[in-house]
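can u do me a favor
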C-alpha cells in the first residue's frame, strides 16, 4: 500500500483541554495532512471547542474534564465505529489513527513521517514518535527523566522503546479495541504501550523533532508520578 493510500484511510485524534490559544492552528495544519480530524474537548471552559470547529475539525465535547486518557479513548472509539460503519458517508474505512497533542509540541507536518513508516509494514503496528535524536532542545531534567522512564517501561514491555513519554503516535485499527481500557489520565499513555506489547504488537519508533512551546504542562508532578509508579509496580508484579 502506498503512502497516498494510507493517507486516505488515516484519521487524527487531538485531545484538548483549555487550549484555545493553539488548537485552531494545530487542527488547521492537521487538516492539511488528513481529511478526517477529530478534536476531543475534555471539558474546557474556554473557546477550545469553537476554535477547533472554525479550523474545520470534527469535535466531541466531554461535559466535564475526565483526563487525557479518557479523551484519547473517546477519539479512538469514534474512529473504530466509523471504520465499521456501512454508511455511504464513510467513503474510506479508517485503518490508521494518529494521536497528537493540541499544544504545539507535535508538528502536524510530521504526520508524513508516520504515513511513510506505515507504508513499509505488512502487519498491524503501533508507531510512536522518538525525540531522542534531537535532545539538544530538550531540557536536561526532561531528558534524564525520559531516559529513566523509557528504560523502565521498555523492560516491562519486552521491547526497546527509546521515547515512551512521547504522545505523538499512530496505530492500526486492529489494535484499537485493546486500547479502550486502561488509565484515565496521563498514565494511560504508558499503559497503552504495555498492553499493546503484551498483545504481541510491535512498537516502532518514528523520528520527530523536539518542540517546546509556551504551553504550561498539565502533568501534576507528584500525583502523576505516583500513578506511574503504581502502574509499573502492578505490571512488574504480573511478570513474576
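np, heres the sequence
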Amino acid at each position: 500500500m502506498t503512502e497516498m493510500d494510507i493517507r486516505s484511510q488515516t484519521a487524527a485524534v487531538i485531545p484538548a483541554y483549555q487550549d484555545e490559544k493553539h488548537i485552531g492552528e494545530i487542527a488547521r495544519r492537521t487538516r492539511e495532512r488528513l481529511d478526517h480530524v477529530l478534536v476531543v474537548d475534555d471539558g474546557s471552559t474556554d473557546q477550545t471547542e469553537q476554535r477547533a470547529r472554525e479550523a474545520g475539525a470534527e469535535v466531541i465535547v466531554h461535559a466535564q474534564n475526565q483526563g487525557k486518557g479518557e479523551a484519547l479513548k473517546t477519539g479512538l472509539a469514534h474512529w473504530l465505529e466509523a471504520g465499521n460503519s456501512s454508511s455511504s458517508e464513510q467513503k474510506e474505512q479508517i485503518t490508521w489513527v494518529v494521536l497528537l497533542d493540541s499544544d504545539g509540541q507535535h508538528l502536524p507536518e510530521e504526520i508524513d513521517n508516520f504515513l511513510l513508516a506505515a507504508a513499509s509494514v505488512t502487519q498491524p503496528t503501533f508507531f510512536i514518535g522518538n525525540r531522542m535524536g534531537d535532545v539538544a532542545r530538550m531540557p536536561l531534567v526532561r531528558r534524564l527523566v525520559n531516559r529513566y522512564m523509557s528504560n523502565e517501561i521498555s523492560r516491562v514491555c519486552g521491547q526497546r522503546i527509546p521515547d515512551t513519554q512521547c504522545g505523538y503516535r499512530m496505530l492500526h485499527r486492529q489494535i484499537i479495541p485493546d486500547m479502550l481500557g486502561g488509565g484515565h489520565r496521563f498514565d494511560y499513555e504508558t499503559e497503552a504501550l504495555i498492553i499493546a506489547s503484551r498483545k504481541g504488537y510491535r512498537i516502532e519508533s518514528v523520528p520527530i523533532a523536539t518542540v517546546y512551546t509556551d504551553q504550561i504542562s498539565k502533568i501534576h508532578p507528584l500525583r502523576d508520578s505516583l500513578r506511574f509508579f503504581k502502574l509499573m509496580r502492578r505490571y512488574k508484579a504480573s511478570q513474576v
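The helical segments are 3-8, 23-31, 48-54, 68-84, 111-118, 140-157, 187-198, 221-239. hope that helps!!
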